Amino acid sequence: MRYTGLIEKYRDTLPVSDDTLIISLGEGNTPLIKLENILCEMGTHVELYIKYEGLNPTGSFKDRGMTMAVTKAVESGSRAIICASTGNTSAAAAAYAARAGIKAFVLIPEGKIALGKLAQAMIHGSTIIQIKGNFDDGMQLVKDVAEFAPVSIVNSINPYRLQGQKTAAFEIIEELGYAPNYHCLPVGNAGNITAHWMGYTEYHEMGKSDSTPIMLGYQAEGAAPFVKGARVDNPETIATAIRIGNPQSWDQALKLSKDSNGWFDCFSDKEILATQKMLTEKEGIFCEPASAISVAGALRDIKSGKIPDGSSVVCTLTGHGLKDPDTAIAQCDQSAMINVNPTLNEVKKAILDHM
Ligand code: AN7
Questions:
Q1: Are 167 and 140 contained in the same domain?
Q2: Which of 68, 141, 149, 222 could form a disulfide with 236 if both were Cys (CB 3.0 to 4.6 A apart)?
Q3: CB 314 within 8 A of CB 183
Q4: What is the pLDDT of residues 149-201, one digit of tens each?
Q5: Who's near 300: CB < 8 A, 6+ residues apart?
Q6: Which atom of ligand 1 is nearest to the CA of 217?
């Protein structure tokens, strides 16, 4: 079967024609999972749903935007795409370029991209340009070089990216039957929060929902330009996906936050990791550190009452936990690993000691 993914499904709302050759890996249609154990323990009547975007083909929400960006790049005759990336965009660009049979160039910050993402960019055959600099430096270089080289930029400054990503909001409204009261997202470049707001407002204008959500954006303390109200020079966080100081969708995000009556807030690396672990241990849901920040935000705001009892809340889990195995292992109790001799007695003792 030829996968046409979210472009075919939402073709009426996307800039494609009947003749457009769709480049797809079957992205979108990700699960919306209601959290049970965590909310039950809190004793709240808030309904909290996880939109598990880590289950897209390359393990992150970037696939929604990349199917559109690469489809349109190919349609315009482009033979190569380029992006700067903290990891997930490079993984998606590499995969969709491979699918389309074109070249991908990815600029990544040396030593600051999670292992799984690096593996993806490499195995799909993209050309990886490592820089001794951060994402913001890479993004500027990509903009500069695209003036001179025959490459299409597929970062979220490419408007087709946000067009594809807005479909996540469509899916949520269709599955719930209404728009949630609150939508929580991690914010790096702020492309995804902008895309979600586009999706929610489009469906509202089309009469497919009665309301639009209040949009909440969460950042890491060391990379929190929206919380500080100014760009950050040397962003730092263990959540490398959102180690971004100069967000590309700055104006759009400030405007939508105001229009939706939303807010921005930030979390320490310690809080981010604790939430990631809580989701894995209490709900069986494994996301990467950057993604966990949306749940950290929702839970803090539910506890404080900023999100009132009885509300419906959706948190986007942007990337799969397998993207960053190093960080996952490093934060686990190493004593959970029991070394024994391969005998019945020792294995039995290990089990009985740990019941
Ligand atoms: C898991 O891959 O910017 O606010 O270059 O990978 O739309 O930037 C990744 C961003 C959240 C932030 N969660 O989304 C990149 C890149 C994860 C991410 C974000 C990213 P935006």
A1: no
A2: 222
A3: yes
A4: 999 999 999 999 999 999 999 999 999 999 999 999 999 999 999 999 999 99
A5: 265, 267
A6: 4
